[in-house]
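Supplementary Note 2. Why include the ligand at all?

Several targets in our set were suspected to adopt different conformations when bound, so apo predictions alone were not considered sufficient. For every target with a known small-molecule partner we therefore ran a joint prediction. The input for fe (ii) ion is given below.
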Amino acid sequence: MIILGLSTFADSSAAIIKDGKIICAVEEERLNRIKHFEGMPWLAIKESLSIANISMKDIDMIAIGWNPLLGWKTRIVESLKSMYQMPEALSSKISRGDGYIKGCRNIFTLKKSLRKIFTPVEVKHKIKYVTHHFAHAASAFLVSPYEHADIVVADGIGESATISFFQGDGIQVKRIGKILFPHSLGHMYASVTGFLGFRMTYDEGKVMALAAFGEDKYRELFLKVARIHKERKTFEVNTSLLDYHAARNNIYSRKWLLETGLLPRKRDEPLNQKHKDLACSLQKCTEEIVFALLHAYFGNNSKKPLCAAGGLFLNSVLNGNIVRNYTDQFFIQPASGDNGVSVGAALSIGSKLDNNFQRHHLKSASLGKSYSDDEVRNTLLTFALSPRRSQNVFAETAEYITQGKIIGWFRGGMEYGPRALGNRSIFACPTFPWIKDAVNNKVKHRESFRPFGGLVLLEEANNYFENVQESPFMFKVFHFKEQYRNIFPAITHIDYSCRIQTVDQYQNQDLYTLLEEVKKRIGYGIILNTSMNIANSPIVNTPTEAIELIRNTDLDVMVLEDYIILKEDVSNHN
Ligand SMILES: [Fe+2]
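The joint prediction is reproduced in token form.
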């Protein structure tokens, strides 16, 4: 059975699944170039059909990772209740409600819209709605290495649930508990992100990075914001103290302002120690609640396999702590946020309706379009660049890396999910203290407090990091062992941690070979890896965009499949 899965609210995406195997998965933002695009993924649908080499009429079923028939009552009742507590939040609630209604209308009218794009004959499929958290849960468990696992899902809000707990058994996923809106860890994190002057539901990773610079000085405050009720296996957010919808209007309660001793930070205002302490306490509070709930639902000292999905588990510091303190059998797939529910919805429907459905462990995020040698060559010619094919692209790139050059690396299929995992990446040598500033100044232009991640040979990870676990999708942070704390300054955060992607031959032979070549030269199989984009832009998707990137930035080298372009080559053609 061939199923088209769709994510149609935040982080829109499309995916095609055949008999339980992911054929392709594409995010709309990479095609329409609008980061975190919300809406129907029309371009991603077309690209997915093209990658799978099928047409719309070959699709047996369409699955959407949202059920527009659910959640209305909870949303309306809770919104009315909180209007008394925080009337200032009303306009934000109305505008969110508008967006929600529009999103649901898009789903209800999907078939009609598809018939405008394709022919009516081609669009005869049944459309199935999959409850949002079930889609998240399926997206992780059904591609995990585990036949049996506990599953946790946490995001801002699904239809009405904010956190859900499941058990996975073979191809069955059964929900055993849920926490409802307005009690949301995702919303709590987003509200403080907004207070700290960053974009809500966008820049939470920056707050996570900032947390390492602070101390847990606001612990007492967060005990009042989010209260655990172990006996009832739940937690509550005190919305009269911190309200997500009010925060969207940059409105915070008097009590919150008094207790933090701060006003909402403006985006260009300097970050002070109190901001850092607030970020630290937020991170600690979030982790404490997640651990308390894991223990409540899945038992103490669990060493059972655990799968996680939902936007909250983009928090790689939390994930590293789960490995360290909860279970070392922990799986997250590459699109843990809402971009992953296209895959999850399709897998969920497939597991119920497809007699040929089988589990497939997902080892690579390279699920998007790749480009042939001819396509790359022709693109270079379009830019009037003479195509220079490297005799040994791995050795030559390793040589540039160890010379301190900043490298764009474009090879294979586009990654699915928010991380560049060595197909649309920027690489640099992690041992040079100045390289972090160079990457920022030449290309990325990110805040200086944000650390860069690292690619590391799986077999060497244990040499450098404490309590390390396989991390093929770069969603886990680990700490350097004491003797390596000063060896890799370009990727070492203030607390000696690093978000890592482990690489083995089976996951990505090209990256493995490159890391081996780097190791021959510097003695370590480890390099800096960051996404190939400039700040606030989606990751580069096509060879044309890659060439434009080296033309418009100070990137030193661009590797496009086996072709190598130097900055001076493009400068000469400007
Ligand atoms: Fe979600």
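Residues 273-298 form the longest helix (26 residues). The two ends are 50 Å apart (CA to CA). Comparable summaries for the other entries are listed in the accompanying table.
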